[in-house]
């Protein structure tokens, strides 16, 4: 497997920059909460499916 280092580094730096901006603006906590709600909902659906 050949890793495209330039693309990997670019995407990592973009992710890091967006995390810093969102963290300082307070929107990062809102995004984390949204991810928590969605993951909790998905796990509930999976558990219900296992029961039936």
General description of the model:
- With 52 residues, the protein is mainly α.
- It has one domain.
- It has two helices and no strands.
- It has helices at residues 5-25, 27-51.
Oligomer: single chain
Task: State the end-to-end distance.
Answer: 41 Å
Counted up, domains total: 1
Shape: flat
How does the helix and strand content classify structurally?
A: mainly alpha
Write down the Rg. 17 Å
Counting DSSP E segments of at least 2 residues, the number of strands comes to 0
Give the mean pLDDT: 76
Keywords:
2 helices, 52 residues, mainly alpha, 0% strand
Please outline what is shown here.
With 52 residues, the protein is mostly helical. 88% of the residues lie in helices and 0% in strands.
Write the layout of secondary structure elements.
Layout: H1 5-25, H2 27-51
């Amino acid at each position: 497997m050949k890793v495209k280092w330039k693309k990997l580094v670019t995407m990592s730096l973009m992710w890091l920059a967006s995390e810093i901006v969102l963290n300082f603006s307070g929107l990062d906590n809102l995004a984390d909460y949204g991810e928590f709600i969605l993951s909790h909902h998905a796990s509930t659906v999976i558990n219900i499916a296992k029961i039936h």
